[in-house]
Amino acid sequence: MKEKSKIEKNAEERQISLLSTALGEASKANGYWLNASGKRYPRLYPHGVSASPFNALFMALHSDRNGCNTNLFTLFSDAKARGTSVREHEQGVPFLYYNWNKYVHRNNPEEFINRGTYLTLDDEQKKQYKGVHNREIRTLFNIDQTTFPHVDEEAYRAVLQQDGNAMERGYSEADTRRMHIRFNDFLLKMRDNLVPVRYDGSGMPHYETDKDAVYMPRQKNFDHYNDYVQETLRQIVSATGHQQRLAREGMVMKNGMPPSDDAVKQERLVVEIASGIKMLELGLPARLSDESLSLVEYWDRELKENPNMIDALESDVNNALEVIRKAERGEKIEYATLRNRKQTSDMQDQLPKHYFVADELRKRPDKDKKTIVLVIDPVSKSADVILPAGASPEVDNEIPGMNKARIGRALRREGIETVRFFNPDGALGYRPDDKYFAEKQVSLARLNNWALEVLSTLNVSPAVKRANEVGFDKIQMIQDDKNRWALYIKPEHQRGYSIYPDKEDINRFFSTLKQSMDNIDKVRMELAHKYYALAEIKPDLKVDLFNSGTQDVDLNRIQRVSVFKTKQDGVLCAVTIDGQKLQPRSVSPQQWQRMWVAEDRDSYKRHLAASLFADILQKGQSQEEHAGEKQEKETEIRQGEAISRQNGEERTVESVSPQREAWDKIKAKHPDAIQFVRTGDNYTAYNEDAVKVTETLALKMEKHEADMKKGFTASVTFPVSQLDTFLQKLARSGARVVIRDAEGLADARNRTTGITERTAGNGQTRTLFDTAQEKQSERRIEPEENEQRSSMRR
């Protein structure tokens, strides 16, 4: 995910604080956590513009927290322009505003265009791009935080009567009746356009994934009408997460991990928040169910520790409510499979046509034998008649034995309603493509007096099958080195390749896994057909994720490659280059998975080694080129020293410090890991590692002159006591860590074997292990085998 700015991080912290506080206090308020006073849906005053669901959530929570009478908000500048400025020391609520000024190609994540270019495209071309939201943070203030109630009391009272809480508006029995009518109308639209809502005598509300239906007890089974409304909304929100309807974004943001208890708990939070916002839209208070109250502590911890949690919630909640709103507008929510089939069919129409059947049939009619070819469609009750060369389709131009009127009457007696005549070639030649012959009966016949005599039946099904179906040897979701998901497909008798699918299809694929659906193989095949057709139309979308991509590297210098898994260091790659065996380097879970998918595993391992050891290969190739330059530099140094001695000066060439040598040695072994060096009661990260630590942990980085620390130009330091806390944050951000003592001595207080942290960002397991026997006393957080391998085998 894109690194967030300081403003975005502050806004996120404010959102998490509001949500965690509201959820945490629900147990003390009989489960009520949102809009307990029954205010209307948040809007911007005085324009009346409604906020997006996720923005509305935090506007309402802010209003509840500050005891405001309405959910009406304003910008600081707008309030000031109206003469009702924001009061002193008031804290606003973050408002997420998106600028759609950049667009990315749906199947090529490297291709971006600006909004101006996007607007020049036609409708079909626009479908190939999706907007990249450039997020800006605005701050809104409730009108009760401004001087408006004091500047214009009469206008403020009018606002309360229209948009105040239930007490201010004077909620009556008539309002209750209108609410019942409104919700009943809502249910009818859900049944017609989204999901069946059925009554169930078990007394337990539930949504069945397999049947794709919501089952609800009778209203009388609930203590209060509001409880019945919200429970129904919970089940409908659950239905939006069906893998055929709206796959949850959070699965992709967690790198598509398979089903887990965490996924179930987070889905429950999506359901509570989305149903709560819908209750807010109805002007009703929202409660947590008894089951959800028991999960509040878990949600609070995840919101504070998982950097992806709030973003996944925003996407899932907004998307779920948008689907419900479409159904309310009367739009039929179509299954993803049906959409994909239509898209695949449209793309297949653009593929090159095959005419094997037509080319064969044109040889069969014979004027001397008086034979014709019949192509009959039993469904449409139509027939194509192919006459021999020289026989005209015109009625007034007959050849003996080819009377078209008799042929037509004979076919109509067989139930055929439409008869068309063709020649083998020419302007009236017969040349449909092979797909045309699907489900059709093809035969060789001749006219025998007033009846048609069938001489033989022609089997065209193999040609039709080749035209309509493509077999696949392998279909697999894999990740590139930037953690982006790609679909690898290997068509029969063709080379395999990868293509980047639409995000919607990625979500649906992993939601199918999450929900343990039996049709995962059908989803694989469906996506394979869709993206095979797309790749045939646009071959430039094919990508090779098994090539190192390194330029000007001689792979023949790599004599031997071994990729293996260890208990302590994870997956390693050991190579022999130019006859020299090098220290193994770490292999990422993505690279490890691709090795098992690759068609030519030996070739892939060679390219993998070229990628991991590119610095050594390039250095070796350039040694001869730079040999002359090195000699010139040495000559200059000697000349400079001679001149210095002549002038009575002393000149020394500074060597690399032992500390930097030790740092370089570990860095060469683990180039992708952040290295922490123990010095007394502190840990320190240097150079590029210091930059990464500063960005992730928000610590202050100290910069040095190039010669001050003998090679260390920047550093960041923190106490030993904060190590465990910072390791969790770094692991969740996807970072790897190596820890060593500066003096090479083991510190028993910090040598804990078998501590395992579950990363929230990508679902990988990283283990902190003890290697006190090594000379530098290193410890490292490493990923275990990617759990996606289980899905890969399936």
Structure description:
The protein is an alpha+beta fold. Among the domains are: 39-164, no CATH class; 356-466, no CATH class; 470-541, no CATH class; 546-653, no CATH class; 658-792, 3-Layer(aba) Sandwich (MutS, DNA mismatch repair protein, domain I), CATH 3.40.1170.10. Helices cover 41% and strands 22% of the residues. The protein has an 8-stranded mixed sheet with strand order 26-27-25-24-28-31-30-29, sandwiched between helices. It has a 6-stranded mixed sheet with strand order 3-2-4-7-5-6. β21 (570-577) and β22 (580-581) form a beta hairpin. The protein is flat, with a radius of gyration of 35 Å. The two termini are 28 Å apart. 33% of the residues are buried. Residues 251-260, 643-654 and 744-794 have low confidence and may be disordered. Pfam families: MPTase-PolyVal, MutS_I. Residues 203-310 form the Polyvalent protein metallopeptidase domain. Residues 751-770 have a biased composition (Polar residues). This is DUF1738 domain-containing protein.
Number of continuous helical runs: 28
Tell me the structural class. Answer: alpha+beta
Order of the strands making up the biggest sheet: 26-27-25-24-28-31-30-29
Rounded to the nearest angstrom, the radius of gyration is: 35 Å
Mean pLDDT: 82
- Model regions low in confidence, pLDDT < 50 over at least 5 residues: 251-260, 643-654, 744-794
Distance between the termini: 28 Å
- Beta strand count: 31
Percentage of helical residues? 40-55%
CATH architecture of the domain at 658-792: 3-Layer(aba) Sandwich
Strand content: 15-25%
Q: Rough shape?
A: flat
Remind me, CATH topology of the domain at 658-792? MutS, DNA mismatch repair protein, domain I
CATH class of the domain at 658-792: Alpha Beta
> What's the CATH H-level homologous superfamily of the domain at 658-792?
DNA repair protein MutS, domain I
